[in-house]
Amino acid sequence: MIYLLAFIVLIGVIVFVHELGHYLAARSVGVTVERFSLGMPPKLIDITKKKNSTDLEIYFFKIINKKIKWDKISTISFQRNQKPSDTIFGIGLLPLGGFVKMKGILDENMDQEITGEPDELESKNPLQKIWVMSAGVIMNIILTFVVFSSIGLIEGDMVSVSSDPIIFAVEPGGPADLAGIQSGDEILSINNIATNTWNEATSIIMQYPNDTISIQLNRNDTIVFAQASLLAAPNIKTGRVDQEIGILGVAEEMKNAPLGLLGSISYGLNQTKWSAILMLSSLKMIFTGNVSNEDVGSVIMIGDIAGQAAQAGLVPFLYIMALISMNLAFINLLPVPALDGGHIFIILLESLRRKKFTLKTRMRIQSFGMFILLGLMAYLILNDIVRYFFNG
After folding, report:
1. Chain-centre distance of CA 379, in angstroms?
2. How far from 20 is each of 101, 133, 144, 228, CA to CA, in Å?
3. Distance between CA 200 and CA 380 in Å, rounded?
4. Which residues have a Cβ under 8 Å from the Cβ of 270 and sit 6 or more positions away?
5. Which of 13, 34, 11, 33 is CA-nearest to residue 24?
6. Do residues 366 and 372 touch, judged by C-beta distance below 8 A?
7. Could you tell me which residues come within 8 angstroms of residue 373 by beta carbon, excluding any fewer than 6 positions away?
8. What is the signed CA dihedral for 209, 212, 216, 219, rounded to 10 degrees?
9. Hey, which residues does 121 pair with through a beta bridge?
């Protein structure tokens, strides 16, 4: 149950913020938003603001003409005087996303009702349309920053106790352990290059993935020499997972330091930048074919990760939320029809050719985009099913 709840909260927050961006941006340039839905059809709840009431409609299974159909089962009205809204706010039964339906937009809904009225998206200039289509991505990046800043405020950050190149811990069975290196050893030089600080030592080690290095150590005022065969691993520290770095299997002494408000904001900015680099590097690896089936997944994998993070505590859960929010931002920026980036790409093309594509052409482009996305989703779901249920 915790896995399902964690998944719903995680996806719900990220998607809500994304769609809220589109909604606010559309309203800011005078585009009518016809529907704001969290979750996917069939619709479960609809909220409509009228002049004298707010109506809450509930949908579920009911018998109509001796057939079971999904239909409205109840309406609850709250009487109040207010400004009516053109937007229906809804909740879908399936917690797998959400959408904002704007007036006069040709999107994955394949709506062809474009009349040229001033409150339609298609009636706006290219910059206004790009602003509306990019606002969801912008909001997801802002969410990433806010969540990382919150983590900094809650937990602080781990900082070095000293800048000296003194080994605090040695990974059992790692290259350093196999080379006889011990906790408390001070690294004097690597490959005859003097190391005065921990950062100098690690920067040299990183340059030799899957290579052997010679290390001069000070152990209790005795000079010791060691030969270590390094391992290779993705450069997680900088986010460049498309690069391999050398791994010795040692750690410096760290301590937790509270950050305060300004420190948390700085931490949030740094972590947001790191996560952006991480996503760019990951996409580069995907497009160059340098990832395996084990490295990609669907909503099944997201649910599993969210559940494990929730069980580990609030901070791990928030950390995963920030990363997936940034991931959604970058995925949506891809120039694939039906994604935000696809819409932006078409707007730019139309601006360059100074002529809009015909409705028929746009329909074909959207259909092609949906075919790609649905095919990719099917592949990822099947990949997860095989991984989780057939490979143990």
Report:
1. 20
2. 12, 12, 15, 53
3. 42
4. none
5. 33
6. no
7. 336, 338, 339
8. 90
9. none
pLDDT in tens, the chain (392 residues): 788 888 889 999 999 999 999 999 999 999 999 999 998 888 999 999 988 899 999 999 888 888 888 988 999 998 888 888 889 999 998 887 888 999 887 665 545 567 778 899 988 999 999 999 999 999 999 999 999 999 999 999 999 999 999 999 999 999 999 999 999 999 999 999 999 999 999 999 999 999 999 999 999 999 999 999 999 999 999 999 889 999 999 999 999 999 999 999 999 999 999 999 999 998 888 778 777 766 666 677 787 788 888 898 899 999 999 999 999 999 999 888 878 998 999 999 988 888 888 777 877 877 777 788 778 778 777 877 776 666 65
Residue 267: which of 143, 390, 141, 158 has the closest Cα?
158
From CA 207, how far away is CA 248, in angstroms rounded?
11
- 183: part of which helix (H) or strand (E)? none
At 367, phi and psi to the nearest 5? -65, -40
Q: Which two tokens stand for residue 41?
A: 């059809």
Region class of 249: left (phi > 0), else alpha (psi between -120 and 50), else beta = left
Using alpha carbons, select from 332, 274, 247, 38 the residue that is nearest to residue 151.
274
State phi, psi for 227 to the nearest 5 degrees: -115, 120
pLDDT, one tens digit per residue, over 305-338 is 888 888 988 999 999 999 999 999 999 998 888 7
**What residue has token string 């921990």?**
198
Among candidates 197, 200, 137, which has minimal Cα distance to 165? 197
- Rounded to two decimals, the pTM is 0.89
CA distances to 237, 281, 387 from 246, in Å: 12, 18, 30
* Residue 11 structure tokens: 């996806």
Torsions phi, psi of 50, nearest 5? Answer: -105, 180
Give every CB contact of residue 262 below 8 A, 6+ residues apart in sequence.
Answer: none
Distance between CA atoms of residues 141 and 327, nearest Å: 9
Joined tokens for residue 252:
């410096």
* Domains of the chain (ranges, CATH numbers): 116-156+260-392 (no CATH), 159-255 (2.30.42.10)
